[in-house]
Design goal:
Pdz3 Domain, stress response, 11 helices, 3 domains, alpha+beta, seven-stranded antiparallel sheet, Thrombin, subunit H, 30 strands, six-stranded antiparallel beta barrel
């Protein structure tokens, strides 16, 4: 379960540009939450005298998730062999999830299946149904930005539930949460929706359903149902000064989750719209300066050269008040509205320039990975994980053969990691803890100067060095590594990625 102690912290969630619909699988089996079945147990007038019949229909589709992760805590020197050996420890975790198909697809939170110091994907996932049957689960895909993940177990004829329309959720509606808090097993709690489209100010995508339903550690990834048995949210986090439930809990809305899950199911990365602007909200002072009401629109502070906004004619100082007819407000920020537009879509922007209202049409771009948007700043101590689906070509070969991700070494990055700004090479962005490179102590921020004594400055050159070594029948490559405060050193790394 994600916690926010006292005040909210920066958490990412949000929409994507895909508009997809969850459909029932072919066959006679129906979802546990088919309306014809739910209508028998919930009177239309409102909350039932008991939730028991409703829960009996839904509970079999909610699963317990347990994980194991081998984490490298450090490296020690073997004085007898003269080699470095990793210090590892097995960590266990878990949470909740729910079946969305009879053939074993399961939705949960990304942080449920994430562990280790760099947020690595866990090594082993076990799913337990309410009938106590256990299955080893495959991680189909995960999206850290929205904190969602999709699992798959090898089974058929399973009970499952369907997503509902979270846009119809209203403050005051009854909701039921089912999950596995505090290691107690399947547990049911009920409450009401306290707020919708709750913006916690932690990112452009975080718009949560807030509830007072009792949620604790282990509930993460479990479903939030309405009284028609539809999944309207995925339990994600709580705010608490004590680390336990105080009735301020949050769920990812179903409408934000559906396109992410469908993208992961099809083997794609969720795509989000992008403008290429830097913006500031309309505070009291800005509103007074431009003569507009507070909290209406956002001011363009910066434009990316050649970006979608610049191509559409947007200028610094423009005030964007509407996106596709929707008002830009603190609850519906410009970033949030654009992120939920499909890349390539033409969208009208209503802007105010020099006191006059006009409309520009922008072709929405594709939002780059978050690490690219963070600029040239490179923190060698930052947590970093290898991408689940590396780009094809050199990046993929390097990850598979060397167990690492690299990026070009720029003068700014050289400054950030504390080496000569004129250094040439590739900086290591992430290393798999279970790889040979990780076992031999390579880490984020190290610089690869050469492979088999040939200088490298591109991923393609590094990948070619690996390919040449394998073609020559060698099972390892010699990397020349530069680390801050040390002289360059040669390290032999196996080329199987393990």
């Amino acid at each position: 379960m994600r916690y926010v102690y006292g005040i909210t912290s920066a958490l990412l969630a949000g929409g994507t540009a895909l508009a997809l619909v969850t459909q029932s699988p072919v066959g006679a089996q129906v979802a546990q939450n088919e309306k014809s079945e739910i209508a028998k147990v919930v009177p239309r007038s409102g909350a039932p005298e008991s939730f028991a019949d409703l829960v009996e229909q839904l509970q079999p589709a909610v699963v317990n998730i347990s994980t194991k992760q081998e984490v490298t805590l450090g490296v020690r020197l073997n004085p007898f062999a003269g080699t470095r050996e990793p210090i590892t420890q097995e960590q266990q975790g878990g949470g909740s999830g729910f079946l969305i198909s009879a053939d074993g697809y399961i939705v949960t939170n990304n942080h449920v299946i994430t562990g280790g110091p760099r947020g690595e994907q866990v090594n082993e996932v076990t799913v337990t149904l309410t009938n106590r049957k256990e299955y080893r689960a495959k991680i189909v895909g995960r999206d850290a930005t929205s904190d969602l993940a999709l699992l798959k177990i090898d089974a058929t004829g399973l009970p499952f539930v369907k997503f509902g329309d979270s846009n119809k959720a209203r403050v005051g509606d009854w909701v039921v949460a089912i999950g596995n808090p505090l290691g107690l097993g399947s547990t049911v709690t009920a409450g009401i929706i306290s707020a919708v489209q709750r913006n916690l100010g932690s990112g452009p995508y975080d718009r949560y359903i807030q509830t007072d339903t009792a949620i604790n550690r282990g509930n993460s990834g479990g479903p939030l149902f309405d009284l028609q048995g539809n999944v309207v949210g995925i339990t994600n986090m709580l705010i608490s000064p004590v680390g336990a439930n105080i009735g301020v809990n949050f769920a990812i809305p179903a409408d934000a989750a559906i396109p992410v899950i469908e993208a992961l199911k099809s083997g794609e990365r969720p795509q989000r719209g992008y403008l290429g602007v830097g913006i500031v909200p309309m505070t009291d002072d800005y509103a007074a300066a431009v003569g507009l009401p507070k909290d209406r629109g956002e001011i363009v502070q910066r434009l990316e050269d050649g970006g979608p906004a610049a191509k559409a004619g947007l200028k610094r100082g423009d005030i964007v008040t509407k996106v596709g007819g929707k008002d830009v407000t603190p609850q519906q920020s410009l970033s949030y509205l654009i992120a939920n537009e499909k890349p390539g879509t033409r969208v009208p922007l209503e802007i105010i320039r020099d006191g006059k209202t006009t409309t520009l049409t922008v072709t929405v771009g594709t939002r780059p990975p978050e690490e690219e948007l963070n600029g040239s700043s490179f923190d060698p101590e930052a947590e970093q994980t290898l991408p689940d689906e590396p780009s094809e070509g050199a990046d993929q070969a390097i990850q598979e053969q060397l167990g690492m991700a690299v990026q070009p070494l720029t003068a700014d990055i050289a400054r950030d990691i504390g080496i000569d700004r004129n250094s040439k090479g590739l900086v290591i962005a992430a290393v798999a803890s279970r790889s040979d490179a990780g076992a031999k102590g390579l880490r984020r921020g190290d610089v690869i100067l050469s492979i088999n004594r040939s200088p490298v400055t591109t991923a393609e050159a590094l990948a070619k060095g690996v390919a040449d070594a394998k073609k020559a029948g060698r099972s390892a490559v010699l990397l020349e590594i530069l680390r801050r405060g040390q002289q360059p050193a040669f390290v032999a790394i196996r080329v199987d990625g393990k």
